[in-house]
Amino acid sequence: MNNRGFFTLFAKEVWRFLKVWVQTILAPVVTVFLYLLVFASVLSDNIEVYKGVGYSEFLIPGLIMMAVLQNAFANSSSSLFQAKQNGSIIFILLSPVSSMEFYLAYVLASIVRGICVGIGVWIVTWIFTILSVYNLMMITGFAVLGSGILGSLGLIASIWADKWDHISAFQNFVILPLSFLSGVFFSIESLPPFWSKVSYFNPFFYLIDGFRFGFLGTSEISPYFSLMIGSIFFLFVSALCIGMLKSGYKLRD
Amino acid sequence: MSPAVNISKINKKYGNLHALRDINFSIEKNSYFGLLGPNGAGKSTLINIMAGLVIPTSGAIEIMGYNVSSMWRKARMSVGIVPQELVYDSFFTVREMLRLQSGYFGYGSENYPWIDQLIESLRLTEKSGENLQRLSGGMKRRVLIAQALVHKPRVIVLDEPTAGVDVELRQVLWDLTRELHGEGHTILLTTHYIEEAEALCQKIAILNKGRLVAMDTTKDLLKRYPYRFFTIKFSEDVSTRIEALPESVKKLVVSCKEKQLTLKLHRERDRIGGVLEALISAGTYIVDMQTDEPGLEEVFRTLTGEHSNE
After folding, report:
1. How far apart are CA A119 and CA B285, in angstroms?
2. Among the partner residues A91, A96, A98, nearest to B147 by beta-carbon distance
3. Inter-residue contact A72 to A114 (CB < 8 Å)
4. For the segment B253-285, what is each residue's pLDDT rounded down to a tens digit?
5. pLDDT, tens digit, for every residue of A138-162?
6. Does residue A67 lie within any of the structural domains?
7. Fewest Cβ atoms nearer than 10 Å: which of A42, A68, B119, B265?
């Protein structure tokens, strides 16, 4: 095991996004602030998703988790794809860093970015409502699991992609619909029966529902079941990603 | 003593294209080795297989006794590759990038003095705090060289390092590689500048269309070209009288400029004495003459089929 190699790659990935923190941390926080400004202000008096829980309190955990997921994906996908495009990926491919170390370094950096953005968003939401924390372990667990999954998906997308268009397609046609149709803005029970059933096949739903449980202490399904589904999905995407890295798919000819 | 690089039966196919065919050769430790070939000959593919960037269809490569596939960590620790393309990570400065690269190879702050030494040797001191994006092409090339040397590899591979660089950098590079060679490193150089290979390399392999067409010491390779050039200066313009020269001389002419005639003589078949006698009998008056030995350029052209009259 090349511990130093792994740690250097991880540190470089964190350093990279911190160097452009306005774009990687501040911008997503501002985006979520605008979502909140519009949705929470307009809808807070009219919608009650769970009994005794205001719409802002329902919405905020979902928005935090959505920001965590999207930024974890953006971190690994943009970093690796940029390195692939400009050729600087060879500096890592030439070094004695294994596929597993490569994978862990990128995914851990994505988790760090996801959590940084999540904390930023959480702080901004204090302007609207200060949410009490019901179970910090659940909040942390789902944030780490979710950003780990999206970090892995970001790696898969960037390995597979041949041009920025492909990354954008993955983001717009896979990540965005899965995050919007996962119960961030509404309870999936309020959807028509068919779409409600479809939502149960969306792994993002379990991540957001479980994360929300950490704040509200109530959820649509058991948080432990969500944790199990999330873990299985994480294992699946990790295995797929490590397999792609080991085979050299689109990285080594 | 095991070789620094051992290449055995390497084949690489891209669909129907057979990029490398049964490449077999080894590079001795502490040698300065040249790999030549025209564009598309397979040089970069072979280097990329050594680097682990390309997976061969069949065959194996060992670097310092380590198989690049099964003992890849040790093999990668043993080799430093200077890529042909000017690639860089636009987020970091020169010093940051070198420290990161050193970290990928498992080194920490104990390697910083060596990084400082590299920065100085490659005359990058003034630019060490500069973002890589802001550097000129030549400076970027120096950084790539420093990156390849950051882990003190025993084998250094330079894939056309002097392509498009200025005279100063070429000299810096030559001095540095000579120094590294002197310290016991094995150098593998691919270049388009044949005179560069002739000046630096002890042994040369020539690839053409994916095949190894020659491998020998530079000295012996030069002997393979059986011709030499014979230039004669006359007292008067011979370019107008070339048709009047004896047939035995006319067939050897490669160029004729006013009073100067250059002939290509086969070392065994064409005698200088016979040529001079024929010219004198034809009524010419010779004022000066000289013979020139062929360079690697001619050998290269002959072996890669670029010569039309061989």
Report:
1. 95
2. A91
3. yes
4. 888 888 898 988 887 788 888 888 888 888 888
5. 999 999 999 999 999 999 999 999 9
6. yes
7. A42
Cα B73–B78–B82 angle (5° rounding)?
105
- Contact yes or no for A96 and B76 at CB 8 A: yes
Nearest to B249 by CA among B267, B264, B233, B234: B264
Q: Are A199 and A188 in contact (CB under 8 A)?
A: yes
- As given in the structure block, the two tokens for residue B147 are 């990156």
A139 token code pair: 């909040």
Closest C-alpha to B232, from B179, B176, B276, B185:
B276
| CA–CA separation, A176 and A179 (whole Å) | 5
Q: What is the dihedral of CA A221, A223, A227, A230, to 10 degrees?
A: 40
Cβ-count burial B7-19 (b if 16+ within 10 Å, e if not):
beebebeeeeebb
Residue position matching structure tokens 């060679």: B181
Count of beta carbons in the 10 Å neighbourhood of residue A89: 20
Across the A:B interface, residue pairs with CB atoms under 8 Å apart total 79
Give the separation between CA B163 and CA B281, rounded to whole angstroms. 50
Domain that holds residue A17: 3-247
CA distances from B281 to B261, B264, B291 (A): 16, 20, 21
**Beta bridge partner(s), residue B290:** B231
Q: Which residues of A touch B54 (CB under 8 A)?
A: 252-253
CB-count exposure of residue A195 (10 Å: 0-12, 13-18, 19+): exposed
Question: What angle (nearest 5°) sits at the alpha carbon of residue A167, between those of residues A165 and A171?
Answer: 115
Cβ-based neighbour number of residue B150 at 10 Å: 24
Say which of B90, B104, B147 has its CB closest to residue A5. Answer: B104
How many separate domains does chain A show? 1
pTM, two decimals, is 0.84
Identify the helix (H) or strand (E) that includes residue A28: helix A27-43
The terminus-to-terminus CA distance of chain A in angstroms comes to 25
Query: ipTM for the complex?
Result: 0.88
